[in-house]
Description:
187 residues; alpha+beta; 4 helices; 39% helix; transmembrane; TMM70 protein; membrane
Amino acid sequence: QVTSFQGVAVRSLSTSSPHDHPEHGRLVYKGNLAKTVLGVKFFSYSTSIFNLFMMPYIMLKSGIGVESLLVQAAFYGLIGVFTFVTPVTLHILTKGYVIRLYYKDDMDTYTAITYNAILAEKATVFHQKDVKIPDITKMFTTFYAKTKSMLVNPTLFPNPQDYNHLMGYDKSSFFKFEELEEVKEAD
Length: 187
């Protein structure tokens, strides 16, 4: 495979697919909101840091230090909500959003890549048997991997069988005739 990189020929000797990861396996899912989630969280964090650095300047110039205690509490409360609560809420809502999902066939394991609190990618490895589907549909949860909630969009799986295997839909839930007879014999 020969590709051009800014006018320079680059030869790739890799025999694996560009969607394979040597450690995690085959790429089976890629979230389309990954850049949006990262951008919103980065914007929220940056405005919070800006608020923290500008707070002393605002307090000195506005004269808020000489107002009543009630006005001070309201002012600091409002700034605190935007400075601390918004980024924490955004993190709680988006921490389970899967940006990439890899699958290793030989071990039947998945690796979900999500963003952690400091905007770095975090890998969560789990087996297919660890996947639990919530009994009640939850807003930001498609499934639980062990105890961690994960959010994926089923329509973004290029191969629907990968989604079916992840969720356990490919396993037959019907009794086989032999299993039914064994239950009758046990009674």
